[in-house]
Amino acid sequence: MSLASSLASKNISRKLSRSILMTVVVIFLSFTLFAGSFLILSLQRGLKSYRERLGADIVVIPNSSKGHGSVDDIFLQGITGNYYISAKDIAKIEAVEGIEQVSRQFYLTSAKASCCSSRIQIIGIDPETDFTIQPWISNNYKGTLAADEIIVGNSVSAAVSDHVKFYGRSYRVAAKLDRTGTGLDSAVFTGMDTIRQMAEDAGNLMETDAFTGVNIKDCASAVLIKVKDGYQISDVTDDINIHITKVQATSARSMISDIADGLGNVSGIIGFLVVLVFILAIVILAVVYALLSNERRKEFAVLRTIGASGKMLSGVMSFEALYIGSAGSVIGIILALILSYSLESSIKDSLELPYLIPDVPAVILIILLTFLIAVLTGIVISFISAGKIVRKDTGLLLREEN
Amino acid sequence: MELRCENISRLFLRGSGESNVFYAVKPSDFILCEGKVTEIIGRSGSGKTTFINMLSGLLTPSEGKVIVDGKDLYSMSDEDRSLFRNKHIGMIPQGQTALGSLTVLENILLPVRMYGDNEDRLRSCSNKAIELMERLGIKELEEVFPKELSGGENRRMAIIRALINDPEIIIADEPTGNLDDKTTADVLDLLKERSVKGSSVLIVTHEKEAFNYADIIYRMDAGDIRSYNV
Ligand SMILES: Nc1ncnc2c1ncn2[C@@H]1O[C@H](COP(=O)(O)OP(=O)(O)O)[C@@H](O)[C@H]1O
Ligand SMILES: [Mg+2]
Description:
Chain A is of the alpha+beta class. Chain A has helices at residues 3-14, 16-54, 71-77, 87-95, 134-137, 192-204, 233-243, 252-305, 310-342, 344-351, 360-390, 394-400, and strands at residues 58-62, 99-110, 120-125, 149-152, 163-166, 169-176, 187-191, 222-227, 247-251. Chain A has a 9-stranded mixed sheet. In chain A, helix 8 runs parallel beside helix 11 (360-390). A 6-stranded mixed sheet of chain B has the order 6-7-8-3-9-10, sandwiched between helices. In chain B, strands 2-1-4-5 form a 4-stranded antiparallel sheet. In chain B, helix 6 links the parallel strand 7 (169-173) and strand 8. Bound molecules: adenosine-5'-diphosphate and magnesium ion.
């Protein structure tokens, strides 16, 4: 071990309160850096996943669902209402100019299910025409769903091959999907025939009166549209909204940009806080070093009388900063890791934004960067404060405390 | 090794007063001879510490040169000067100078460890340190940390630390300040012995009893350094 590093470790262990104070500052710094970037990355990943899930250019929902289950609610929170677009209106939508593909979805809000503590959203898709959900499902499931099979979102507490009961009938879980960070994580997906069966069962069991007078066989909860090349999404949206009174069309891009705005705000605030804490930590570290430098001046002057060069003295301080920085940032990062993972669901709920925690390589990257920044900050500050002492004549330093 | 000053002086700023720049050491020539004990006496505030700090390479003179071994101490790089000091100049500063996070023995061996970790040399210096500690009566304090030391024990530690590398030049600023008569005699005997072996020894003191040890005496008065004849 070099002299500088052994002196540094002796200084740390024998000036314990000073070392602990510095370590706490570094813990504070690295905790904030890690937790802040973890949060921002989770929001960004959530948005990305949401954008991928949405996949459609235009989403059409019935007018009657306005205020109950808006498009945002459906996709973000997983709140669907039992409202429907009639077969007649679907035909009208299909006839609008500039539409390349149309796919119906059927939503059902279950009151009771053996798997779940709260109400659960069931989404029926039409495998023939679907272009939004299936690409995602295909990551986990390649087969064709039988009438008694369902696919569950990532946070539904049912495993593959489990049987789950809806409205008195039992269904087998054929697959479980990847996490998306959106409301779809707590949804259940079925084919069209299956969900119609469920709706009929629900009607028979009188669990809901939403289907009274509705022709379940032909209607839909939402219609997703892909626009033909060469047509403006906004034109098609307007066309639908003007000509078909009972439905409401929304451009998917505008939904995403709403969320992106919200996300931008939240990320902005978090980023600002991280920068603030970072600056605060730098100031505190600099002040602590300045306060401690009085004690050091004498120490350094004595070292110089027995032949230490300026470089050695800077070395001693840098090693101290390295050791304290490493210990502090490891502790800070571990604390932030524990907190970020354990509070995942409550953070998600309180933000009301798509929130998907980063994958392992990304987390490792934040860990490394946080560590590097926290340690380097300490070393740079200690180097600067050592430089101030080193430049002064030893003879002057020796006098100071006498 | 001979140490020579050419016309060195040091100016300081006074905190208050009519003329705010003054000479703590007026321009002076000075030679520190090999194999002799040279003493500087003078009242407190006469500039002794300022003067010998300049000789040790610890305080840049306002003017003039300090030449050791044919080299100008202050035109060396910081690294060269530090290494030179470590190898050739044993400096005992005024006051309490133990490093708080090291034991007494670790303090004493620090100059040896500073440049290179030769185990053999470290062992032989360690034995030498214990011998010297025994001689100055602090043998039993080997593993003790400085905050438990008395002022006099702290000074003796600093003296041994300055001698551990067998420097050719020994500069001591009031080394016997906190010591009783017996220990003062022990310390001065030790320094005298070094000069007999060929070291150049410079001692600052204001105690007349040290006179019996000096080969050459200077007296400082308000920054003026003059030969002093008894
Ligand atoms: N860094 C400094 N700034 C201003 N004045 C100083 C400084 N160092 C020493 N002095 C002044 O220079 C004079 C000589 O001081 P010093 O060399 O310590 O004297 P001595 O060691 O003989 O007691 C004193 O008047 C002291 O106040
Ligand atoms: Mg003095």
